Amino acid sequence: MKLRMEPGSIRVRLSHEEVSGLFENKCIEEEIRFSEEARYKYAVLIHPERASLGITLFDKAFSITLPVETEGDWQRSESFAVKTFIKADTGEDIEIVVEKDFGRKTNFKK
Fold it and tell me: How far apart are the C-alpha atoms of 101 and 99, rounded to whole Å?
């Protein structure tokens, strides 16, 4: 899972295997270990009670949650990304994007 963070944007790119694993297990996560004490986790989840794409922030982690409807539609479609904007406490709009990173292959089955 590739993570890209910029001012106003959090973008996660998933390989074909990661997309399959996400829909099979309902969760994929990664951890960046700077030391035993300094770790940062990030995850993408599918949640049955979620109506839209969202993000939950923790002290040393965050999770992006996809709605369960994404399971049938996005996994098999040619659609490249699921995205939304959230309003930060500062008033700034932050774009949250989960993308398929399948290289140049575009032969997805619907």
Answer: 6
In DSSP notation, 24-76 reads: HHSEEEEEEESSSS-EEEEEEEEETT--S-EEEE-SSEEEEEEETTHHHHHHH
Stated as kind and residue range, the H or E segment containing 88 is none
Domains of the chain, residue spans? 2-100
Q: Chain centroid to CA 31: how far?
A: 14
Helices (H) and strands (E) in the chain, counts: 2, 8
State pLDDT tens for residues 38-93.
999 999 999 888 888 899 999 999 999 988 877 666 767 777 788 999 998 899 99
- Contacts for 12 with CB less than 8 Å, ≥ 6 apart: 1, 2, 3, 4, 42, 44, 64, 97, 98, 99
What does the alpha-carbon distance between residue 110 and residue 100 come to, in Å, rounded to a whole number? 15
Residue positions counted in the chain: 110
